Known about the structure:
Largest sheet of chain C: none
Number of helices of chain B: 5
CATH superfamily of chain B: Glutaredoxin
Oligomer: heterotrimer
CATH class of the largest domain in chain C: Mainly Alpha
CATH topology of chain B: Glutaredoxin
Strand order of the largest sheet of chain B: 5-4-3-6-7
Number of helices of chain C: 6
Number of domains of chain B: 1
Helix content of chain C: 55-70%
Radius of gyration of chain C: 28 Å
Largest sheet of chain B: 5 strands, mixed
Structural class of chain B: alpha/beta
Number of domains of chain C: 2
Distance between the termini of chain C: 50 Å
Order of helices and strands of chain B: HEEEHEHEHEEH
Amino acid sequence: MSSATVGAVFVALGAAAALVGIGVVAFGLLGIHQRWWRDARWLAFATLGFSALSIIWMERALITRDFTVEFVAQHGSHQTSSIFNIATMWSALEGSILLWTFILCGYLVAVVVKFKDRHADAMLGFALLTLFFVTAFFFLLMVGPSAPFQSFDPPVGYDGPGPNPLLQSHILMAFHPPILYLGYVGFTVPFAFAIGALATGRVGEGWLLATRRWTVMAWGFLTLGIILGAWWSYETLGWGGYWAWDPVENASFLPWLTGTAFIHSVMVQERRGMLRVWNLSLVIATFALTILGTFITRSGVLESVHAFSNSAIGPMLLGFFGLIVLVSLVLIGWRGDQLRAPGRMDSPVSREGAFLANNVLFAAFAFVVLLGTIFPLIVEAVDGRTISVGNPYFERMTMPIGFTLLFLMAIAPILPWRKASSGVLGDRLIWPAWLGVGAIVLAVLVGARGWAPLLAFGLGGFAGGAALRQVVLATRRQGWRGLVGRTNGGMIVHVGVVLIAVAFAASNAYVHQSEFNLAPGETASIAGHTITYEGLSFREFANRTETRATVRVDGGQVYEPGIAVYTASGQVVGIASVRSTAFDDVALSIEQFPNDGTDRAVVRVTVQPLIVWLWVGGLIMAVGTLLAVLPGKRRQPTAPVSAPAVPDRVEVPA
Amino acid sequence: MSETPASDRPRLALWIVIPVGVVFAAFLVLLATRDVNETGLPEFTLGGDVAPEITGITIEGEPFDLDDLRGQFVVVNFFQTTCPPCVQEHPELVSFHETYAPDGIASVISIAFNEDPAIIAEFFDTAGGDWPVLGDDTAALAVEYGVVSVPESILIAPSGEVMSKVIGGVTHPGLEGLINRWQEDNS
Amino acid sequence: MTRRVASWLAVAMIGAAAFVYGAVDEGEPRTDSDRAYAISNTIGCPVCQGQSVVESNAPIAKSIRETIALRIDAGWTDAQIRAELRDSYGEDVDYTPSSEGITILVWILPVVAFAGAVAGLVVVFRKWKREGDLEASAADRKLVEAARALADED
Lengths: 654, 187, 154
């Protein structure tokens, strides 16, 4: 049996296990199969086992350069270094679906293990049904249009081209996709429970408590994945940017926005029993948007540098996306009114009021990003014009939303539930306000000008101060426990968000970029930095030839941006080089080496302030998320009077 | 109990779901009917316009002005010596030019795209071709002529009006065909 | 005047003064290369799949960057430079959607939707205020007990 066939058998067995899983759970829910739980459990383990075997088999083929597997023949190479060789799996479509499925099976098993004591609950049954269904779909993608294991007959001495050179150029690329997938796929679990809640009509707050940590973890991975992607783009592409509002970037950002809205509004439901249908809709929207994003990335329907080449899985993903949304809409239409809580808010100036405002803003944010992303399609369909909607649109439209969110971040954490008095606010907000003003004064003193960045710094200081105030108070009261738990971890996440917002505003407002055509020994200056070009060097590698310029920045350290030519494909890839400090970054890339017989080089220099704080902020967000899912100090739950809820369907935990 | 039974509540969710569903269905149709195999090349908008002026110093140091060629067909060829189709089409241009230029019917001019004049001069020395070549400061010309990559050739009529653009390599018979068709259409 | 009010007044005054100074004072003049970057960053490369001419390394992207710098030297306005590029390569090289025809919807729809949402919330809050408070019933209390038990177990 050829090795491609072995892999295909693993995939087929996984698909079979997932399909049987659907049947078993369905019969169990119908009451036909009494002992469904035991079978479903084993089937869940089986899907994980077979997807793990598929992955191991693929990695084996990649590591041993087994070119009889077509995927390896197309994307592997003897010349690829070992770490990138492993990462080759998720550098192309089929392998990325393989990884996606494996992670999905991991979540499926985690649900089965975690909720083993609650299997009598029909809601868990429906959730498992949904999970098996999604798993089966992804396995079927691999059986059909996106088969990773197809056989290939390599000629003697065959060597593949290796993965896309852009993806081999930085170690971050090995981590960005798996982490992003952990986030994307993680939202399947809350989605499954949302469907379970709708199908059983037992909305209660139980499913929320059950999936809260899963959602927060998925959100954390998604955050980290997006930040790593931006970092990779900044470090390797050499154009000095990190976020381009490209359709695929937007596709990853959309579920992040709705997910962020959800993890805030879920607190209103827990405390006050309100916003149930809204929360269900957010969870469903988040999951649906991950599938939509996968479709956009993999169908070539929108132009993007990130897009995988056109493939046959586009229609299947679109169909799946349609099915998810259709089923969800029908369920919400059917059950929605029954689930609605009659609760009400006492005052808009309260914690729940702030969460509501947060949700309106995040929904508006998501709407702007979605509309801008797909608008060219709409215009083309309606009147045949081709237009672009790019960064000027997104920046102009989201800036006011961003400012308002920062303001909300400052006041929301200190607002009490139900109703706030101005005295309380005045006392609690004064120190954050001083911090905000301090940020403006400092920025003006170091030369920052313009209303937009200054407003961002001021609001950033205000919001950061409010978050820090909460952290300081909590640690003073509870010691180290003041850092863990949802509220405290959440405040640490806020600090990270503030850093990113401030760095984003500063780097966008005060970017300087120039190209210099320099002969060896010549110096150019830009934005207070001097760039000295010292000469050329050549390096031969197994799979590429590098031409690097030696560039001294500010008379100190030497950096070596250059150009790599990959032997197999002839593809030319820039090698960027960045000098980072806490204050600003000098990013260097080589535009070209003029082939006029001299050693001249055209060096592109981008100077941007505070870039490093984007990555620091991202790291703080990740750490904060981790702290947030650790069990914190248990609070007394809701006082009865603040939680009017549907009385006719009391949730009794199984 | 201050609350209405579930059945009597307004069917709010339903009334929201229906329009959302309609919008969503339209969205799906939009995505499903999108042709993903479009080339994505920008359309050529210059046809019929007066050709943007081209003046400058050729790589041989002669002054050049496109207006001096008014009255004959002109092939404005954007090229790069490192691009294989450009090298491939070169003999065709040479043969076309040699056939028509002596009688003042048609001629070729070349505009280098992102390349050093010294290298271009060397290329013309070996590959032949005796027509004006502009090598310096050609970036703006490429933009004015809507060039996206090389080779691209823009045909200009004797009146000075832009006829059409050929993306990719040209051939001698191909250029003749374009000129004949234009003459038929305009006689 | 209490200390709190005084403190807030000081915050407001210092903040406003610094902000207004920083917003009005123009600081260092914008260089030509800053201007060129700002335009290039919002012009798409005609052949490279959703990259701006700043991002792209395609020869034509480079030519367009050069051309933008040339035009700035020659004293063209930003609008003139954009118009030339739209003429040469079509409307879709300009990343800023125009406000002509149906395209204007992309600017208006979010504003309308947001205003609608805010108006809806205002109406709901008014209604709630009019109707007054709810009293918790025995069933409510029971529900909360159940939730509390579940939370403790979690």
